[in-house]
Fold these 2 entries.
Entry 1:
Amino acid sequence: MNNGQEVILSVKNLVKDFRVGTSKKKDAYMRAVNDVSFDLCKGEALAIVGESGSGKSTGARVLTRIYDATDGQIEFKGQPIDDYIEENGTLEYARQVQMIFQDPFGSLNPVHTIHHHIARPLQIHNRVGTEHIDQLVYQLLELVGLTPVVETAEKYPHELSGGQRQRVAIARAIAVDPEVILADEPISMLDVSVRLGILNLMADLKDKHGISFMYITHDIATARYFAEKTAVMYVGHMVEWGNSDKVTQTPKHPYTQLLLSAVPEPGRGGRRELGAKKGEIPLWKPDSQGCPFAARCPRAVEKCQGDFPGITQLAEDHFIRCHNPQ
Ligand SMILES: Nc1ncnc2c1ncn2[C@@H]1O[C@H](COP(=O)(O)OP(=O)(O)OP(=O)(O)O)[C@@H](O)[C@H]1O
Ligand SMILES: [Mg+2]
């Protein structure tokens, strides 16, 4: 339980290293995710925000078991993930934790109809008897706003727009009644005009159907719009996290402040210059020292080069890793 809410996914001190060379020495690895911890509660959205290469997708892939964790613990519904899978099977875990990808075209098979895409997981997971499959496919299409349902079901992916295809991907994910959806930049390839519709659909699924979302994005403005909690990542590290309003309205980490300063606001004259130094984004190694943001940080002090900052609690649900918060 977390503030009286049921915790669905609990991640503690997660680490994921990748081999970058052929040698087996320690420095032949890079650390894509370092010491990441969070709880995802029932019917709640957690936004993971950060620029390219910050480890967002790697974290999600570890949660789906595409990758094994290098270190750390993951619990699903209060049970260590390995125990859960041993008891319930890999297929059941895959049913409960669904993923939606950035590119809705690449994730749909061009030779199959929309009906096939949604019926297939229903068959694999034995959700309903064959005689009820059509009815459930139509209900799911209705739920994600793809009407008229019979005509849509007969179409092929290339006959739909990007936004409609992403709705199919969502229908396919929710067809198996999952507990969690890991949405990896689900709107970034869509036209701006249809992005809000997809976010609102996901918000409905969260609020009315109790599905928990991990929402991965570059865009801190949509994180604030959609998710109750936000975690800001930089080079594999969570640097600021907590209640989305607190993180976005009273940001204390220089990197969060930088991301927010880049959000265009009406009356502010478009995007502002980013207030960071032009330092390199480091390639983090298992033995790297200091704060990963130090090279770009306008407020870096001496110890930022040598010590990885510990966690400071700023408010009831607001945390930061920074030697010099403001
Ligand atoms: N399979 C892999 N093998 C080796 N390195 C990898 C692998 N997958 C990711 N990486 C590295 O791990 C780091 C984090 O990558 P990841 O894809 O998780 O970033 P991301 O935050 O999702 O970025 P983006 O916003 O561009 O999708 C990157 O430096 C990347 O090069
Ligand atoms: Mg990614």
Note: The longest strand covers residues 7-19.
Entry 2:
Amino acid sequence: MDVSTSSASPTSGLPPCVLALDVGGTGMKGAVLDRAMRPIASLRRPTPRGEGPTAVVDAVAETLLALERLAAERGLPVAHAGVVVPGIVDEDRRRAVWSANIGWRDLPLAAVLESRTGLPVALGHDVRAGGAAECALGAARGARNVLFVAVGTGIAAALVVDGRPVRSGGLAGELGHVEVRGGTACACGGHGCLETLASAHAVASAYTARTGRPAAGAADVAARVREGDPVARAVWGEATDGLAEALAMATTLVAPELVVLGGGLAEADRLLLDPVRDRLAARLTFQRTPALVRAGLGDRAGCLGAGLTAWQAVDHHTHTLFTGAPTP
Ligand SMILES: [Zn+2]
């Protein structure tokens, strides 16, 4: 995507833009997006999660105001802001219900940010928003039954069935917490969760535990798999087996045509996709075998999803204004 640095006067009558912000466990990615979802400006800032949830809320509000200034410098009126966060997010109630990573509990985040910034704010879930972006702009364009799986520090999924996102009060899509063989005790309180075997964090930790040698991350383990390191190969094999087992379960239940793998582990590309595809196909009998592809938007999916969330809120308000009825 091109990044325009053109400016215009505040009275230029330019079309409105939206502010998009993806709040991650370590960093925030923000952008000013036009109606065609092109980034006009962007910024990245660290997430101060070590300082607690209040500091994170402060940083999110400040970053939205910084994005608003970037829009103002270009003379662009802001139609809406979209903010996506990890954990359990109830989009309809506009609340960040829970995040182990950031530490907030049942926080009316959209309303808090609106009062702090004066901007209209729509709240979304990082992975569901990323999945929506992959459907609109990325690897899942044109597909109506999609499972988007983000395999990063944790594992979560976005599910689109018959063209509609499945949210269920923000609780749907927790693929990281289905039980698979080889899984261990999980931070969620369960045992055997996929996340304990196949997240980027789990892969790096398992390698370090078995060898005593630190792994800088899942990418480091992937590099050792390519070099033929037998421990790395064993750890990688268990992770891909676990992913295939969970995907087989999801395929049996909701029959996606397309599975899109994103997040840090998908950076390994074919080293991840090929064995997961083979092991998934081997597990299926009568089911439709989904196509398995790598995400197309990389780490921009969440931010673009935040932008889509904002534009949807604009369209919803416009529809309500002219017909008096909410959009279906
Ligand atoms: Zn769990």
Note: The chain is about 40% helix and 20% strand.
